[in-house]
Amino acid sequence: MTKTKAYTVLSILFFIVDSSVASTFFNVVNLGAKPDGESDSTQSFVKAWDGACGSVTSAIIYVPLGRYLIKNVEFKGPCKSTNITFRIDGSLVAPPDYNVIGNLENWISFQWVNGVSIYGGTLDGRGIALWACKLANKKCPSGATTLSFTNSKDIVINGLKSFNSQMFHIVINGCENVSMQKLMITASGNSPNTDGIHVQLSTGVTIMRSGIKTGDDCISIGPGTRNLWIEHVACGPGHGISIGSLAKDLDEPGVQNVTIKTVVFTGTQNGMRIKAWGRPSNGFVKGILFQHAIMKNVQNPLVIDQNYCPHNDSCPGQVSGIKISEVSYEDIRGTSATQVAVKFDCSTKNPCKQIKLENVKLTYQNQPAVSSCTNADGFVHGVVEPAGCF
């Protein structure tokens, strides 16, 4: 079959996006996808990606209304096109048997791509049965991340909904210049390891105007994250927004220049947390701003934990090598579900330095909360309640 005839069979259309740029258009239904939620449509998405990735112009992959069953799929670059857009009106659903994708790291993954945008759509990971298996301590697969981007840049995710992921919902790993906004991420409050968004080894990531309800961290920030901006996020249920766990490895890149502002935490286990294993590491946390946050019945609103050692495994008797400095908490208000609303438990070898508390007011059962600070050095501005740290 000639190349021209093949493209005719694949129903590739051309249309004008504006007066100067032509885009190649791929409708997954025209490529064989079935919007019935039962037929395996994986190869139709692969065909659409192969055509878009090989296009010399910008490309659009369109997913009409309906439910499309797809197994694990990898969209790999580098591509000829540096402008590929997924416009999703329908829903992508995982197989009903969690074993099909549960032993794989990712359900939908992008690797080595530039200029990929996702607008709209719903991703349904169907993770409820796997959570039940784990909670019952049965032999279960670890589960798959719903959506991941690795070693990619200039990425946009706008208006996406992610429900019931088996494991993490979205992972950004080794990426540059990623914009995420208007996301809705939802999982049960007791769903294990269902972090909403995890960022690591990446720079220039923004997360804006999103709601995250999950059973683990709403947003987790791993080693090597720099220039991260989080704003206008509603978090809860979940474990809050966490930098860490850090110090998993001795040689570990630091976390620097992170802004987290205008966030509402509702009924979460933690609010704003920095956590590091109590063991040697050359990593660091520096230049962090927590600003304009509201706590609603949060168990641990402000936490620095440099003695993290779950199950007393691989860390007893050691101290954290992570260096934490230049962390500011500004305009933090609301209620704590426990009496200790501010807990900074820092390393004896590497005390926390230059910690600033400014205009903080946290209460417990309509009474002033208390603070607990060890090996932490800093200063206060304005009214700070609970007082006593510096």
From TrEMBL:
It is found in: Secreted, Cell wall. The active site is at H239. InterPro entries: Glyco_hydro_28, Pectin_lyas_fold, Pectin_lyase_fold/virulence. Its main location: secreted. GO terms for molecular function: polygalacturonase activity. One of its GO terms (biological process) is carbohydrate metabolic process. PROSITE patterns: POLYGALACTURONASE. Keywords: Cell wall, Cell wall biogenesis/degradation, Glycosidase, Hydrolase, Secreted, Signal. Transmembrane segments: none annotated. It comes from the Eukaryota. Residues 1-22 form the signal peptide. PANTHER family: PTHR31375. Belongs to the glycosyl hydrolase 28 family. This is Polygalacturonase.
